[in-house]
Write a structure and sequence with these properties.
The structure is a homotetramer of 382-residue chains.
Chain A lengths: L6 E6 L7 H11 L3 E7 L4 H11 L10 H10 L6 E4 L7 H8 L4 E4 L7 H13 L4 E3 L7 H12 L5 E9 L13 H6 L2 H4 L4 H17 L3 E9 L10 E8 L4 E7 L10 E6 L2 E6 L5 E6 L4 E5 L3 H4 L19 H18 L9 H19 L11
Parallel strand pairs in A: 1-2, 1-3, 3-4, 4-5, 6-9
Antiparallel strand pairs in A: 6-10, 7-8, 8-9, 10-11, 11-12, 12-13
Chain lengths: 382, 382, 382, 382
């Protein structure tokens, strides 16, 4: 790595009791590419300011709200170059737009927005802006998911036939949102989360990942969304059939009511010549299954990877056998985005605003199909 | 076990190069409840007789065809008491009917028949006969599947919400049927297999097993069946959504084109209070996942089972830690059926002709739904 | 398989409440090579006779003791051809000698005897007898252990460097022998078990298996045996270092006080070019680890085996993916021994009386080394 | 976390092509407790300076050697408060002494030094210094190893009986040191590594971890060290028997010639009431095995941990199900040490100079025992 100056970073959201804000901050530090210098860390001004003091932000860059932050930072010579937006879904659009219009690069948590209309509008904003945009579908940062993508692209699997994606969790098996738990609260509130519950929160992750790895374009989906917990306003279990261009078929299951699962994201891909299987909870290994031969256990940074099977080495910080995890995968997105910011180049593997729009189209199509008795529904047409 | 005389057993099918016939013979011997004394081991008389000689059948009980066997055995004082039918699907109905009408007990491989009409007709034959009927959905004989059923029935999982069943294989990823391989040949020929390919061959196993364990009654299904191998006349990949009475939801995936899978039957069940997960390839262990607590690894014959969690001990021949397998599970069906034959009682856990009819209804509903663009379809109404 | 007459089998021991006798009976039936026609099923005459009645033995071949059985069966034209000895260790020698001297083939449970002197004396008896002798070190019957042996012999691992064998159990973590439990009782009584406890009961299994697979000859061992349960008269935990001819090194751990383990037999072998790892509780899979390449998961009957990697196919009854277990492995020994009995040929992979003597030498060397403060001790010299 | 100023950190070693230096730098950043402001990054002055420029060190704090750095930094008002020493073993002592005598806190990689005499001398230096000392036995930073320690201390396992520790690798199965590979070079050179090869490099990690978790004091060890690769000057395979005060027994295997293993550190502990099993390659899960009950799979941050089973929560940054890895465990040591530096309190779980001396005593005892034909040898007396 050549000598560098760190990128000046601001943050919207991520104050006290937030989960994902802390993740973004660690991710920004791991490869030493960013300095967090400003923030509007909560939608409640007092909380925002208190959170900023805890993090040691300078008083004049610890803002009560993102509008003020956008305005004042844009006016500084040493103003932020990039901003991380880590608020609930319905508060992605406005700050993203505000900063993009100031040509501040935006790192935005997923899903892109809470409505498809907002997503499309934000896409237009991104296209008009000189700034870059990163959507943190973080699972794409796992080295073996990049290895999987390279293996598919190389033809090692042959034409893809079947894709099985799933993301089960147990944490919402009971009405946790009624207990005042903040994370459960906004995720089950359509006004803040959008029309999708489970399908938006984790279904989009599974969907984005299968798209990232296979590159398959979806033709249509057939969904059966269900709410098991009485009184809940959004879906908490998602069953979807998928048809891809070229004839591949898929299934996607996401659930927040599956006892035994913490974050059970799993991706399995079967082609004419080989299969691939990967589980997020053990991200440093992946099965490669050539037809008619013994299964092989690939490891992050292990034999096949370093033997130059492609672009998969990206993001490997330490040798095989010492596990990297979720934070490192997240950091890889930050680090590669830093490179894009500095050079205006690269970032081919980074999720962007188009992936975000597609995520919303996926959510909408799933909800609409389910309402129409699981009718096959084309993404983007609903 | 009290002193016993072995049951005199005949066999239809299962001659040279057959797979499942040998399995039935071993299963019949493991617990010493049967003597194989007669057979019509192939639909080709010469092969039948040669096969019988190899197995050491007495010359006068080694028959060229099942009709002769049914007639002559019925006329003997020491005629067979039971017969195992291990032919391709389209040759289940006629011999089953012939022997049942002679009041010979029938052990029939699955699926019950090659058409739903035959299945229903056979059900009537069974009802009129004094003889008993066993359908060898052998996976129900695994001790931990019985443990699972007992756990569900006991309420340990609470109300079931989600059922995920799957049965992937790789063996038909290429057009093996064109090579003259006998097993592949009849399984991909609608005239012998019936209207379902993968859905009938292994989809029914997964479906039967989820019904056995959960007891949930199916309301409707929504299917997307597909044929990936060019020229194949039946489906080789099956994606099905399920809705059960009471509101539970399910997914079923069966595939014969999934590289990396030999017989990847897996059953996962999630209730309000706990989840269960089991994989056939490692049948001596099962995950029990109480909500909010660590996962527990139950073992066949292990702690919880012997602590009297219910009827699950059935079929455990050796203590925990020494694995039992497929043949023992199969043998358990034979052994329990022997008890039914002797006493006219028991057999509550044995798959019967009603399960067989249900299997055909499942196949037909899946094919019809798929043809109707994945419309929700009620079983038995198609 | 060609037409056959079953071998007439007798049994010594294995009556009510016995464990291993039932295993032997099932093993003898699985491949239909034996008929159990006579028995002296307990050292208590009343129990022997009652047990024989339960099993349906003819009254005149249901004997009160093995001496009577040996004498009377030898006098019958249809007397037994082979006998299975399934008594506690100290009652192996006398019946084995009695039957061998009548030229009845002997199938004997392990360890061979309770003392090394008896073992050596029995070896002489075997050498003088026309009858064949099988020692049921049953784990050698697992198809993948034969595959492992073939892989080592083929040079696929290169020269062996390190062998790690272990066999942990939990069942004697408390003084179960004080509760009247029969299996625990004789195994912890030196008068019946011999000078070794855990080392004889399961340590010999691990040792025999590593010898079977690697073929390495032991140079010396260094042992630390310990008794954790107060009042127990034999060892219940075994730590042994091994040195093999040619320079390979090994470790062997056996324990009966390891919570979490049912029958945790594991064998790991590392050569210059590759490693192998296998766990008995999941016997249908084995890791093959070529240096510098991804691990491969071999399966019983799977790709590499059937691709003709050698003699490993033996004992595979059903295709890959449907698990075989402990009873099938046991049955393979019985079936191959039947072939030896009929033809006087074959049986190269069957454990014999020499393996039995070696097992006793291993036990004695381990106990002696441990008493001598873990001094390196040569097998057979103690 | 309350507002904080970062600790000013220097580094000795860790320049171009170094592995562990980069790990230390990431670890120092993850929780935002340190600023790297000075370095003497190589023993070759040109490499040191070039490496510092790459990392963006200010020119006046980018030193050609550690002596200069110690002197100049001590003279600055804003001089470093702590220094990380990440050189080969034989260059730990001198810089550690130099900085401790300037009262700069020291973070030192393991093993403590290359000789026991140095280790003891350094212990005296630490005792005389006002500065704190951290030895980065990083595996102790894994949350589940802390959970394990808490479980043992709580009595959940009962009295410990058996400890099985192992650390196999494959990377030195061939004479990699002859290829010019830097990491292999110094690790196999007694002049730089010390008298132990594998036993010092990874054996000490396994030993330190078992001591950390169990708290058992070692009575004596019995070792068989071996060198398999021709021409290698240090051991590459380590077999050790252990006896602990109170009667527990243990085994330790470390190997650098075991194909299939990247960093296969595994710790298994069996007590009177329960067992624990953990594998470093999958550090987010651990088996807890209560005697006579099903195994439980504990997860990092999962149910039992958060239910307050003790001090185990430390170091958990993200909720269960999203894996943390090696870098996070490493970071936890850095972060807790920052707290010690700031407050002079805490750090009870941090490895210190006494652990370092013990590590050298372990190495020396192992080598001496092995040379004395595996004689039982007391640590610290050799």
């Amino acid at each position: 790595m050549s000598p560098h100056k760190r990128i000046r970073l601001g943050m919207v959201g991520g104050g006290k009791n937030a989960f994902i804000g802390a993740v973004h901050r660690i991710a920004s530090r791991i490869d030493d590419q960013y300095d967090l210098v400003a923030g509007a860390l909560s939608s409640t001004p007092e909380t925002a300011l208190a959170s900023g003091r805890e993090l040691g932000l300078a008083a004049d860059r610890n803002y009560p709200d993102f509008e003020t932050m956008a305005k004042k930072e844009a006016a500084r010579a040493d103003g932020i170059e990039a901003v991380a937006i880590v608020t609930p879904n319905h508060v992605h659009f406005a700050p993203a737009k505000a900063f993009l219009e100031k040509n501040v690069h935006v790192i935005c948590d997923k899903p892109l927005t809470s409505t498809l209309a907002d997503a499309r509008a934000l896409r237009d904003v991104v296209r008009r802006s000189k700034a870059e945009f990163l959507l943190t579908h973080n699972y794409t940062g796992y080295p073996l998911m990049r290895q999987a993508r390279a293996l598919v692209a190389s033809g090692a699997l042959g034409a893809i036939r079947v894709v099985q994606a799933e993301y089960p969790q147990e944490w919402l098996a009971q009405p946790l949102e009624n207990s005042g738990q903040k994370q459960a609260g906004w995720r089950t509130d359509p006004a803040r989360s959008g029309m999708g519950g489970c399908v938006g929160d984790i279904g989009t992750h599974a969907y984005n990942l299968l798209r990232f790895v296979t590159g398959l374009k979806t033709e249509a989906l057939c969904a059966d969304l269900h709410t098991f917990v009485a009184g809940r306003q959004v879906d908490d279990n998602v069953h979807i059939l998928l048809r891809f261009e070229g004839g591949a078929r898929g299934m996607l299951w996401a659930s927040q009511v599956a006892p035994g699962h913490e974050n059970g994201l799993m991706l399995r891909i079967y082609g004419e010549k080989a299969g691939l299987e990967w589980v997020q909870a053990e991200p440093n290994k992946m099965w490669f299954c050539p037809l008619g031969q013994p299964r092989q256990l690939l490891t992050r940074g292990g034999a096949i990877t370093t033997a130059g099977e492609g672009a998969a080495g990206a993001g490997v910080r330490i040798p095989a056998g010492h596990p990297e995890g979720y934070l490192e995968a997240f950091a890889t997105l930050y680090t590669e985005f830093a490179q894009v910011i500095r050079t205006g180049k690269g970032g081919e593997m980074l999720p962007d605003v188009d992936d975000g729009v597609e995520g919303l189209e996926f959510i909408v199509a799933a909800v609409v199909s389910s309402r129409n008795n699981s009718q096959w529904t084309v993404l983007g047409e609903a």
